[in-house]
Amino acid sequence: FFSSGFQVAPETKAVMKWLRSIPFVLSASLHGGELVVTYPYDYSRHPMEEKMFSPTPDEKMFKMLAKAYADAHPVISDRSELRCGGNFVKRGGIINGAEWYSFTGGMADFNYLHTNCFEVTVEVGCEKFPLEEELFTIWHENRDALLNYMEMVHRGIKGIVSDKFGNPIKNARISVRGIQHDVTTGN
């Protein structure tokens, strides 16, 4: 997943181990500096290409997840193109990560490729490093969107895979026709 020579920080390794040990299905990474929701892939299929649309096999689901957040955010859903994030208005406040800018080593790509967890990246505000007095407003702008996003955990595949005696089957592979990305059952 990571290019050669790339050093993985101990805390990143710990999160990767945690994600592999618990069957998370939904997560979000919160950043600052823009108002948009991005979804995988963040790394372009053609690394020399900048701003290249690089969808996952689950493109429709990722768009639905990103829209669930964006549509519930009072500023991201604002149709004004003259505000921070206004250049994403025509896209509904969402964009494929690699189409915005390509980078390697992101957690959203890792989660999708190596776990059952679907992750979007939420740029929560215009300031990269907001002042303390701005945090209360940022929280209130994002609270309902976060709650709406968390409710999306009930979408998609869910249930119990069991043997003929009703015992759960650990690590059973689940495939959906037409989507070249399997998931596995948890404990």
UniProtKB/TrEMBL annotation:
Residues 1-153 form the Peptidase M14 domain. The active site is at 123 (proton donor/acceptor). One of its GO terms (biological process) is peptide metabolic process. One of its GO terms (molecular function) is zinc ion binding. Its cofactor is Zn(2+). It comes from the Eukaryota. SUPFAM superfamilies: Carboxypeptidase regulatory domain-like, Zn-dependent exopeptidases. The keyword Calcium does not apply. Keywords: Carboxypeptidase, Glycoprotein, Hydrolase, Metal-binding, Metalloprotease, Protease, Zinc. Belongs to the peptidase M14 family. PANTHER family: CARBOXYPEPTIDASE Z, PROTEASE M14 CARBOXYPEPTIDASE. This is CBPZ Carboxypeptidase. It comes from Burhinus bistriatus. The lineage of its organism: Eukaryota, Metazoa, Chordata, Craniata, Vertebrata.
